[in-house]
Design goal:
4 copies of one chain form a homotetramer.
Chain A (H helix, E strand, L loop, with lengths): L5 E2 L10 H9 L12 H13 L5 E5 L2 H12 L4 E6 L3 H4 L4 H6 L3 E5 L8 H9 L10 E8 L10 H13 L3 E6 L2 H8 L3 H4 L7 E4 L10 E5 L2 H13 L8 H11 L3 H20 L6 E2 L7 E5 L3 H9 L2 E2 L1 E2 L4 E5 L6 H24 L4
Parallel strand pairs in A: 1-11, 3-4, 3-5, 5-6, 6-7
Antiparallel strand pairs in A: 2-8, 7-8, 9-10, 10-13, 12-13
Helix pairs in contact in A: 1-11, 2-11, 3-10, 6-7, 8-12, 12-14, 13-14
């Protein structure tokens, strides 16, 4: 029985990658014009255009919520509806940010598997939405979370299908890429293929959860959306004056494929756990493990409490449902310990039942 | 004649203090609960309560604009008016942030010297405001910038006078302390005396301009204002998930009086320049130099262009008006060079005039 | 076969009651202070307090949407969630008004029959909402539509059950009473019993749909909600300067039980149609007819088109679903004509099928 | 000495014109599609296009504040600044409506005489505004009040001058025509000349103050502004379901030049008073009397109180400053009584001083 804690709570509980900290140290030299008028930010602009193989605009921002809310506000009118999964982070975990930034913009849940938006369900909703009728929220944008909030990854064809429906009806396609790198390594495609080539207009590029520190980014592919984003950010107090320290983080993140390496480590850790849990009849993975998250249904609440009692930290998402998140620095030892502990709980479970101890 | 640039553009153009970078490095260890549920943030809470000698709530935020807008939104109804100097940062340099966060909150300019709000002018405005009349913006808060946007510092009695008027009429007192440390060392008093003891309810505590990096803070003294601030921040995407890296910066900022040492350096640099400019008949300091900013009127636009031509970077605030800002790391050499260059421009000016070259 | 149209589209397509027009004519005398400072408005205040047997505040407003949005905004923080039926007017037919007035306030759908909010479902949602967690929309108010958007009427016990859950968790209870009078005559109770005695804090009192003209009203029972409503209304341009003409309408509406008489006529018309349709095996009333609306499922889309072809005006709510709304001035002849026409469609339907014409 | 009251408080204290009431009665026939889908509204559309000699869109709205706020919101981004006179109704008397509807839109006061915006001052402000800089509110629209809040009337050349500056910089021109008809009869030109031909993009057409009842109107000349106005209105609860009763009022207002006849009566009443006050040395008209308002400075506060004591109702705008507003139904007797009473006060004043009664 261990007495230290092992942390699977969230990828935002982890450390920053040393390369990113180092970049931040390195940027602390000389003076630089504020609010993004510095060379680090200009270089980042050029670098991401290479990485994504297209002209684009990048805006470092403090948080993923800020990235999402501003991306959507810049894509919508105040009368607009944003379509998303009921499980989407914007719907479950960002207070009323979408409505606040958008002046009332409404979130409308669309069906789909494992936190995805289904293109068919989206089409049905748009067709029933009452386009042009002033008493109806007007279809304005669709939000795709990649990887989803259930740890699944949209296939490129799935993104393209949703984008086709969206664009055919004048909606912008926003990708909440809080775990974009995790999805990217799963898809095994280029950043361009995973975003604008599949129809994405604006991307919240997650950095924090994958080894970052204090910055994420908005990456805008659609020129008309880009026009207003700088103004949206400034009026919301989201533009750092010492921007170089944010830009330097994001630059380091994509240099030498750091983001892919970090994501590969986290995904591999999750996949390893999944591989060893799948054979166990008593537990169920309720969504495909395609990124760095596992949603595991155990046979009883006692089993979850047992794990917690052993020092494992994770989120409880239901009476018997646990979410485990692997970080870039989750070690093989920690992952193995988790699997072993789960197995131990299953055994305890069986004994308890066979022993008839519980009433 | 120099060929390198010497930068007096803004204190946000400068480097971060090594101590703050170091703290950030040091915080990169182990896992920590997100969104402020970490020990760094808890420690910061306790530490600032000591520093300010009172129970309080502290919220690290990305920018001063965010600190101001959220502080004011939490202090106002959407029907409210915020009284401020016409020169206040919230009025001149924060887009429509106050109105955005407040749901329409209106800024109303109040007279005063050198960017200050005069208690008498405030009283007159409140008395004429139409309290209780629904067609009138209702007096809700007053915003004091310390040091002011003209580089002056409110005396403790001035703050107390404004606070007395404000509180007598139910207004909250918000201090935009983007340069609070600079004011503090000028006042030579305790942080408590410069804030809540003089009536301040909520303080935007500037860190970035004084050696910080990517974080400022909201410090709330009034318990009722504190209730909603966490919610305001979250819906605005202003709460970092890896909060420890923000809290660590602010902790380092106040440890061992770092903030005071940095501010003293910047103030001393400005005072040194002022001392050497004051005897020069041809130039005029249009506001008292009480912090780290100088507003210098030169005899001609040509003189300003001459300085720029020599490689000095600064803001032009009028045809003949320059703003020079000293940073914690502005060197004596740089300051001396500026004075010498100004003197050189004055000589050039005189020769030009005596030579009758200009019409 | 008729060639004129018979209108069952909506109760807002109808005429105003002559008594209300007359009151408006009568108010056109002398001068009166603007914005509600007139005697008609003062008298209305007193009169409604009698009608509802409690101190209250009444605010005439132009529309039901305005009444709903302001009532909810005054009951919520901007971080709040408003619980309502998925079918509620605020959710389906008021653009983004709730979010706009509330600064982002979010609507959350709660299960229930026939457009109702179930107390049990509400309780489950509140318990899962994450009270106190800043990333979660905070439970703030519940919206009950009386009669519901499916033409059903909440029983007094149902209102009381929802209110009990709401108040136990600090939520305000808002009743969208666009058809409050229709519900009242069905319930056969007093206005007090149907509102504040059952727990309602603030009521959107519908007038327009029941013989009104250009005004509805907000009736506030909870003193703390009342504080801000006047300010909410004024900043939204919802306060008429010649208020007397609005107050006079509402006064006439409740005088001599006019509202009850008008509602009784509309309800009786709907009940009469329902009584004659119920025996018909081929059609289905998908919700109880308890007010003045009928939701009728016909055997085919052709049957609906047949009715339209005969000159009947009504809303199509699905391929085979029609909504018929009776007004205070829907005549017995019109209602009988509708039933006869539906019967005629059923016969046509049967012939067509028996003739084997359709595949 | 009279004992009844004579009312010069505001034109919104007056009666509705009988023709408008009659139109409202006449509209109470048959059924009509809601929310503006009726024939009265369609006819109004066509009729106003004739009156203004151009294609346009008209939207009846409950109040002038609603008309102004929606017109401006539809003309601005949330980062925008609206330029107006410091005395403009939007700035002094509409709570925070402009900011609320615009998502933070800021009002910026521009100099000018008697409540006007000067084209030169506007140009200076735009040039100094920082176009394209995200930390600055972006110039978006200019608001002209016609007649102004001081009772003056913009000349056509003045409107054209402001419009030229505005359009050259991409700003929309909004005219708050709460007293548009009063200005029109003073100018003696066509509605077209007084509006779009002089550069006005969107007009708040006042009806209420000039014999209306419960409706004003937005008249949009610029097609791009018109696109969103219907949506803005609906989300704000500003679209009546029984729209015909609003449209019928406005139709009656312009039929047979009713609006001009009513305005001529009100203006003539004011002009008559002005003509008889001008010779009196002891009083001063502080603004030209070009519409239906007089701003009269009397020699003492006692004189104002004397008038009030005699039963005259009016607004006090300063210790010695009174505002008198004439309505379309202000009678010659009432106007003569006011002048006589003022003369009586002046005599009392003189006796008091010569008699040395006051300390």
């Amino acid at each position: 029985m261990m007495h230290t804690t092992i942390d699977f709570r969230s990828d935002n509980c982890g450390r920053a990658a040393p390369e990113i900290i180092a970049a931040l140290n390195a940027a602390n030299t000389g003076t630089a014009l504020g609010y993004g008028g510095d060379t680090w930010t200009a270089d980042l602009q050029a670098r991401l255009a290479q990485v994504f193989e297209t002209p684009l605009r990048v805006y470092p921002v403090p948080t993923g919520t800020a990235a999402n809310a501003v991306s959507l506000a810049a894509s919508c009118t105040p009368f607009g509806a944003v379509y998303c999964s009921a499980l989407a982070h914007v719907n479950t975990s960002e207070s009323n940010a979408t409505g606040f930034f958008g002046g009332g913009t409404k979130l409308v849940a669309i069906d789909g598997d494992h936190g995805k938006v289904s293109a068919d369900a989206l089409l049905r909703e748009i067709e029933a939405a009452g386009v042009g009728l002033a008493h109806k929220s007007q279809p304005a944008a669709v939000n795709l979370v990649q990887a989803t909030d259930m740890g699944a990854v949209y296939g490129l064809d799935e993104i393209a299908d949703v984008s086709r429906v969206a664009h055919a009806h004048g909606l912008a396609v926003h990708m909440d890429g809080a775990r974009f790198a995790n999805a990217l390594v799963t898809l095994g495609c280029t950043p361009a293929e995973a975003s604008w080539r599949a129809g994405v207009d604006v991307l919240s590029l997650g950095v924090t959860k994958n080894g970052g520190l204090l910055a994420d980014a908005i990456v805008v592919f659609a020129p008309d959306v880009a026009t207003s984003i700088g103004f949206h950010l400034r009026r919301a107090g989201l533009v750092w004056s010492k921007m170089r320290f944010a830009s330097a983080q994001i630059m380091a993140y994509v240099e030498d494929d750091l983001w892919l390496r970090l994501a590969r480590q986290a995904n591999a850790a999750a996949a390893g756990i999944a591989r060893r849990l799948e054979p166990l009849a008593a537990i169920r993975l309720i969504a495909p493990v395609q990124a760095n998250e596992l949603f595991v249904e155990l046979p009883s609440a006692q089993a979850l409490e047992g794990l917690q009692g052993e020092g494992f930290l994770f989120q409880r998402r239901g009476p018997r449902l646990a979410r485990f998140v692997c970080r870039w620095d989750s070690s093989e030892t920690e992952c193995a310990a988790l699997v072993t502990a789960i197995e131990r709980q299953l055994v305890a479970e069986t004994s308890a039942h066979s022993g008839g101890i519980r009433p």
